[in-house]
Amino acid sequence: MKKETFKPKKGQVDYTNIRYAPVINCLLRYKGKILLMKRNSGLRFYPNCWNGVSGFLDDNKSVRERVLEEIREELGISARMVGKMKMGQIFSQESKRYKKTWIVHPVLVEMRTDRIRKIDWEARGFEWVSPENLRKRKLLPGFSGVLSAFGF
Question: What confidence tens digit (pLDDT) does each residue in 94-110 have?
Fold first, then answer.
Protein backbone atom coordinates (compact mmCIF):
# COMPACT_ATOMS: atom_id res chain seq x y z
CA MET A 1 0.00 0.00 0.00
CA LYS A 2 1.31 3.45 -0.84
CA LYS A 3 1.88 6.01 1.90
CA GLU A 4 -0.84 8.63 2.23
CA THR A 5 0.13 12.28 1.95
CA PHE A 6 -1.58 14.81 4.20
CA LYS A 7 -3.04 17.83 2.42
CA PRO A 8 -4.22 20.45 4.94
CA LYS A 9 -7.62 22.02 4.44
CA LYS A 10 -8.06 25.75 4.72
CA GLY A 11 -7.47 26.77 8.34
CA GLN A 12 -5.64 23.57 9.31
CA VAL A 13 -2.10 23.41 10.70
CA ASP A 14 0.19 20.82 9.12
CA TYR A 15 2.08 19.24 12.05
CA THR A 16 4.11 16.92 9.82
CA ASN A 17 7.40 18.67 10.50
CA ILE A 18 6.56 20.47 13.75
CA ARG A 19 8.12 19.19 16.97
CA TYR A 20 5.08 19.54 19.27
CA ALA A 21 1.76 18.18 18.02
CA PRO A 22 -1.54 18.32 19.93
CA VAL A 23 -3.77 15.28 19.36
CA ILE A 24 -6.94 13.73 20.67
CA ASN A 25 -7.09 10.03 21.45
CA CYS A 26 -10.56 8.70 22.17
CA LEU A 27 -11.72 5.61 23.98
CA LEU A 28 -15.14 4.77 22.62
CA ARG A 29 -17.10 2.64 25.09
CA TYR A 30 -20.29 0.71 24.45
CA LYS A 31 -21.78 -1.66 27.05
CA GLY A 32 -18.44 -2.02 28.82
CA LYS A 33 -16.33 -2.72 25.73
CA ILE A 34 -13.75 -0.37 24.19
CA LEU A 35 -13.24 0.13 20.46
CA LEU A 36 -9.70 -0.49 19.21
CA MET A 37 -8.70 0.52 15.70
CA LYS A 38 -5.81 -1.17 13.85
CA ARG A 39 -3.84 1.52 12.07
CA ASN A 40 -3.22 1.02 8.37
CA SER A 41 0.21 -0.16 7.21
CA GLY A 42 0.49 2.90 4.93
CA LEU A 43 0.31 5.47 7.71
CA ARG A 44 3.31 7.72 8.37
CA PHE A 45 3.03 7.43 12.16
CA TYR A 46 2.77 4.07 13.97
CA PRO A 47 1.53 1.80 11.18
CA ASN A 48 -0.10 -1.49 12.25
CA CYS A 49 -0.54 -0.43 15.90
CA TRP A 50 -3.84 -0.63 17.77
CA ASN A 51 -5.25 2.65 19.02
CA GLY A 52 -8.41 4.57 19.81
CA VAL A 53 -10.03 7.02 17.42
CA SER A 54 -7.48 9.79 17.14
CA GLY A 55 -6.57 12.89 15.24
CA PHE A 56 -4.64 16.13 15.32
CA LEU A 57 -6.04 19.20 17.05
CA ASP A 58 -5.10 21.15 13.96
CA ASP A 59 -7.81 23.79 13.61
CA ASN A 60 -9.89 26.15 15.71
CA LYS A 61 -12.51 23.55 16.69
CA SER A 62 -13.09 22.57 20.30
CA VAL A 63 -11.99 19.14 21.55
CA ARG A 64 -15.65 18.03 21.55
CA GLU A 65 -16.12 19.20 17.95
CA ARG A 66 -12.94 17.38 16.87
CA VAL A 67 -14.03 14.18 18.63
CA LEU A 68 -17.41 14.24 16.86
CA GLU A 69 -15.73 14.98 13.53
CA GLU A 70 -13.18 12.15 13.90
CA ILE A 71 -15.92 9.66 14.86
CA ARG A 72 -17.97 10.70 11.83
CA GLU A 73 -15.00 10.63 9.43
CA GLU A 74 -13.35 7.44 10.69
CA LEU A 75 -16.44 5.37 11.56
CA GLY A 76 -19.43 6.94 9.82
CA ILE A 77 -21.21 7.46 13.15
CA SER A 78 -23.32 10.59 13.58
CA ALA A 79 -23.18 12.90 16.60
CA ARG A 80 -26.61 11.71 17.79
CA MET A 81 -25.11 8.26 18.46
CA VAL A 82 -22.50 9.82 20.77
CA GLY A 83 -23.35 10.15 24.44
CA LYS A 84 -21.38 11.73 27.24
CA MET A 85 -17.71 12.65 26.91
CA LYS A 86 -15.19 12.84 29.69
CA MET A 87 -11.85 14.57 29.24
CA GLY A 88 -8.79 13.01 30.86
CA GLN A 89 -5.59 14.61 32.10
CA ILE A 90 -3.54 15.94 29.17
CA PHE A 91 -0.06 14.41 28.96
CA SER A 92 2.94 14.48 26.65
CA GLN A 93 4.38 11.45 24.85
CA GLU A 94 7.90 11.74 23.51
CA SER A 95 8.76 9.95 20.25
CA LYS A 96 12.45 9.86 19.39
CA ARG A 97 11.63 7.81 16.30
CA TYR A 98 9.48 10.58 14.81
CA LYS A 99 11.26 13.48 16.55
CA LYS A 100 7.96 14.61 18.01
CA THR A 101 6.33 15.32 21.30
CA TRP A 102 2.67 14.43 21.17
CA ILE A 103 0.45 16.52 23.45
CA VAL A 104 -2.27 13.93 24.09
CA HIS A 105 -5.82 14.93 25.05
CA PRO A 106 -7.50 11.69 26.19
CA VAL A 107 -11.27 11.50 25.85
CA LEU A 108 -13.66 8.78 27.03
CA VAL A 109 -16.76 8.68 24.84
CA GLU A 110 -19.91 6.80 25.79
CA MET A 111 -21.52 5.49 22.62
CA ARG A 112 -25.19 4.75 21.93
CA THR A 113 -24.27 2.16 19.30
CA ASP A 114 -21.54 -0.32 18.47
CA ARG A 115 -22.50 -0.36 14.79
CA ILE A 116 -19.59 0.86 12.69
CA ARG A 117 -20.86 2.13 9.35
CA LYS A 118 -17.44 2.33 7.69
CA ILE A 119 -13.76 2.60 8.47
CA ASP A 120 -11.73 5.13 6.55
CA TRP A 121 -8.29 4.69 4.98
CA GLU A 122 -6.47 5.28 8.30
CA ALA A 123 -7.59 1.91 9.70
CA ARG A 124 -7.49 -1.62 8.41
CA GLY A 125 -9.70 -3.10 11.07
CA PHE A 126 -11.43 -2.64 14.40
CA GLU A 127 -12.59 -4.66 17.37
CA TRP A 128 -14.72 -4.05 20.46
CA VAL A 129 -12.56 -5.34 23.32
CA SER A 130 -13.28 -6.07 26.97
CA PRO A 131 -11.14 -4.01 29.39
CA GLU A 132 -9.08 -7.02 30.51
CA ASN A 133 -7.96 -7.66 26.91
CA LEU A 134 -7.04 -4.08 25.95
CA ARG A 135 -3.30 -4.43 26.57
CA LYS A 136 -2.92 -7.77 24.77
CA ARG A 137 -2.23 -6.12 21.41
CA LYS A 138 0.58 -4.10 19.88
CA LEU A 139 -0.65 -0.71 21.11
CA LEU A 140 0.41 2.66 19.81
CA PRO A 141 3.08 4.08 22.15
CA GLY A 142 1.38 6.37 24.63
CA PHE A 143 -1.99 4.64 24.28
CA SER A 144 -1.40 3.04 27.67
CA GLY A 145 -1.46 6.60 29.07
CA VAL A 146 -4.89 7.11 27.50
CA LEU A 147 -6.13 3.84 28.99
CA SER A 148 -4.69 4.75 32.40
CA ALA A 149 -6.34 8.18 32.30
CA PHE A 150 -9.68 6.39 32.67
CA GLY A 151 -8.65 3.54 34.95
CA PHE A 152 -8.12 0.82 32.33
Answer: 999 999 999 999 999 99
